[in-house]
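Input sequence (205 aa), recorded before submission:
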Amino acid sequence: MNKKVLNILKAAILSIIVAFLFVIIISVTLIKIGKEKFDMAIYLLKVITVNESEIKTIDPVLQGNVLINYPTYGTKYATIKIDSIGLELPVYYGANYTILKSGIAHDENSYFPGEGGSIILAGHNFSSFLGSLPKANIGDRIQLETTYGTFNYEIYDTKIVKETDVNEVPIQDEKEILMIYTCWPINNIGHASQRYVVYANLVEE
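Predicted structure, token format:
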């Protein structure tokens, strides 16, 4: 074999080795990127969902108007009842996809029943959730049966607001007001830009 042919073979082998190494580097890089994205997706899934088997229930205690031992995020702590429209649903502390799929969500930034401030609850506008909420009238009673006591509220107003109108569901500590909202129109499927809000005052009994 002459020298020229030998050099051509060496160059070809070297090219094959370089190409092989390039493919390995690219493959490892893609696998790493894919794993990072997969790990991130798993992390986000854990953030927005709650594994009920991993939740330890804490029983809240109300002393005066201060709640001690707040419920664990994602756990049920109350049942909401509006007898006038035949509504009875579980209320969970926190708001995420899992909770909204299970019942009524309690905005974790708002107050709890008995604490003397704004209580903000939200739920889907499906018929099995808050689809009947617009049928409730001013003067109707809303009852929250919590693990630490029962609280009654009376509806004094209803509104249709934009989803961006956060001032329509204000968090304040001057008076205990229950605010419940769902998507509007009530038969809307998918994203809705409006909310139907019910406002109720605590009834001293």
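Checked by second reader. Residues 41-55 have pLDDT under 50 and may be disordered.
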